[in-house]
From TrEMBL:
It comes from the Bacteria. Residues 15-134, 164-276 form the Rhodanese domain. PROSITE patterns: RHODANESE_1 (PS00380), RHODANESE_2 (PS00683), RHODANESE_3 (PS50206). This is Sulfurtransferase. GO terms for molecular function: transferase activity.
Length: 279
């Protein structure tokens, strides 16, 4: 069972009959990008999942740009893709795992343990001369079994009531300039949640792949100091790249961090919530 990352070479050795591959390629600036590149060529047997339509729920103006989908509906959709209780799932993208990690996290949120992100994504598959297909596979519909969640979340009210308290060390996955309140282009307000530390998700990568577990552990422990991982709350702009930080922590053996799904786009929608700027 692969639970965090899987290499392209390892993926080539798996039995396709016991495997579901999820193509999660996406671009925030071009929502049509993913379906277009999927049609042009994807890993054999891969099913496409769109960040806006499949991996997010309905927006109401105050719950963030990519709110969590309804769990029951998501479970039905996963079952329709052929994900059963013992199915190994592999998610990939072409952006260092930033979108595939969202699918990884959502499956774990519903209690599915056998899910991993393809390290290096589509480019790594090409590098090992993996087969590329343009065929849309038939769906092997089955029953997805929801189990106790492997991932916990923190809701906005809970977070607001516990800012600065033990057990709620925030880590923001956005780029340093956006964390500081500069060059904000996606949300109406710049800055970060008070008390947060910054860990740009791309720092988890080296040459497009995740750094070794030991290196990630050392970097994260330097950031967190004496704070254990299970007292960490992860967020980003809309609950997507925070999942990348969660994947890095799990790969590094630092388990227990929780996700604030609404993230900055939800937090800043209420002018009464405090905002910090600078580093």
């Amino acid at each position: 069972m692969y639970r965090t990352l899987i290499s392209a070479a390892q993926l080539q050795q798996l039995d396709p009959a016991a495997l579901v591959i999820l193509d999660c390629r996406f671009q925030l600036a071009d929502p049509a990008y993913g379906p277009t590149v999927y049609e042009a060529g994807h890993l054999p047997g891969a099913q496409y999942l769109h960040l806006d339509y499949h991996l997010s729920g309905a927006k109401n103006g105050s719950n963030g740009r990519h709110p969590l989908p309804d769990g029951q509906r998501l479970a039905v959709n996963f079952g329709a893709l052929g994900i059963g209780p013992d199915t190994q799932v592999v998610a990939y993208d072409d952006a260092g795992g930033m979108y595939a990690a969202r699918a990884w996290w959502l499956l774990r949120w519903l209690g599915h343990e056998a899910v991993a992100v393809l390290d290096g994504g589509f480019q790594a598959w090409q590098a090992v001369n993996g087969e590329i297909s343009t065929e849309v596979p038939e769906k092997r519909s089955t029953r997805f079994v929801m189990r106790p969640a492997l991932e916990d979340i923190v809701e906005v009210e809970q977070l607001a009531a516990n800012l600065g308290k033990p057990g709620y060390q925030l880590v923001d996955a956005r780029a340093p300039d956006r964390f500081a309140g500069l060059n904000e282009t996606l949300d109406p307000v710049g800055g970060h949640i008070p008390g947060a530390r910054n860990r740009f998700f791309q720092l988890n990568l080296q040459d497009g792949q995740f750094k070794p577990a030991a290196a990630l552990a050392a970097e994260w422990q330097a950031l967190l100091g004496d704070t254990p991982a299970d007292e960490v709350v992860l967020y980003c702009g809309s609950g997507v790249t925070a999942c990348h930080n969660k994947l890095a922590l799990e790969h590094a053996g630092l388990s227990g961090a929780r996700l604030y799904p609404g993230s900055w786009s939800e937090w800043c929608s209420d002018s009464e919530r405090p905002v910090a700027t600078g580093t």
